[in-house]
User: Fold this.
Amino acid sequence: MDKIVITGNKPLHGSIEVSGMKNAAVAIVFGTILAEDKCTIGNIPMISDISDAFDILTAVGAKIKRLDKTTYEIDTTNYTPCSAPYELVRKMRASYYILGAELGRFGRARAAYPGGCDIGARPIDQHIKGFKALGAEVDPPSSNSGGNINVTTEDGCLYGDSVYMDVVSVGATINIILAACRAKGTTVIESAAREPHVVDLANFLNACGANISGAGTDVIKIRGVEKLHGVHYDIIPDMIEAGTYMMAAAATKGDLTITNVIPKHLDAVTAKLQEMGVTVEEYDDAVRVSSVGCRIKGTYVKTAPYPGFPTDMNPQIGVLMSIAEGESVIREGVWDNRFKYVDELIRMGACIKNDTKSATFTGVSKLFGAPVSACDLRAGAAFIIAGLAAEGVTTIDNIQHIQRGYEDIVGKLRNVGACIELQNVPDDANVLSSKI
Assistant:
């Protein structure tokens, strides 16, 4: 099994470039189904979730051509609906966007119940509520359906309507947008998610000829259009990848300039780092983070939907809290299982008490290297940060979780002074799809 091995206690210095946003990229890649045309998508991150998405699209008739390192032409003209392979779809969480995209284009959809990281119950009830509001019938997985969710319409059409989200759900907001783009009439999503990747998807679809307004607010209006067309579009930078490197700079007493970012997307992370005594300077498309000679202080964080502090940064700031002076607290406002990383950090010398919804960190003078296992994507990133800051050697396994969301994280960190390597990589293992 592949492992990441880190010899820690080395400050990071230099410049590190952020890739395209994972969560925007997977939504937009599946969103190309609606275009029924060729789309050229740039700034696509080279991660396993994208490889899996490409494999799914190829299996149902799409043609994908690599134009350069981060740019792909996706042609969904000959897409075959309701044929996505069960085993491919169930590997990734964002595969459920097939349902909204197929439903919007064909009036029917089928897909396996999605997989992804185990960070708590993630039902798709809000997705289903939205589909039903637009006039669809939804049959959940059963013995007769082969484990697939089937969505149908009586006359092959969807009809715009109002959808009030009972909870703020990024996935459901995106899926309803996809379904409503080509519906008859106007759809209004109230209590919609405001995350940057929701905005990025809306911008992409509008460039394809959709009529979506209000993305980035809690009320989104989608006026259905008859047809979409192909477009050239670039994915926004990944704010969670950027935030991860910001935490790594702070935890290692380093000085990093993180490029290809939108600083506004990082406001919540920047504010907490500054509260903890870390210096953060913002530029047009970069941030500089320095903790050289500073005393890192404890703080309080409550995760929340955007623009609040992101749940996807909970484990990473937890590492920094582990070595901050005094007591820190994280209250998790989104996922139940977000603190699965705590036991592994304790192996490295952290002092943490937690329950399902909160964790209290009493800062220690240093962490110590240890063998740890990545239990999910963001936990894996946190263990990399911990290993970089710790004294001694840290070995991380189950790194397939990390590869889902971070492009060449080992190479990027090595270039800014980290002693980090990928070990035991057979010639025929852990290679992304040949399309990447």
User: Anything to note?
Assistant: The first strand starts at residue 3 and ends at 7. The chain has a mean pLDDT of 93. The first helix runs from residue 22 to 31.
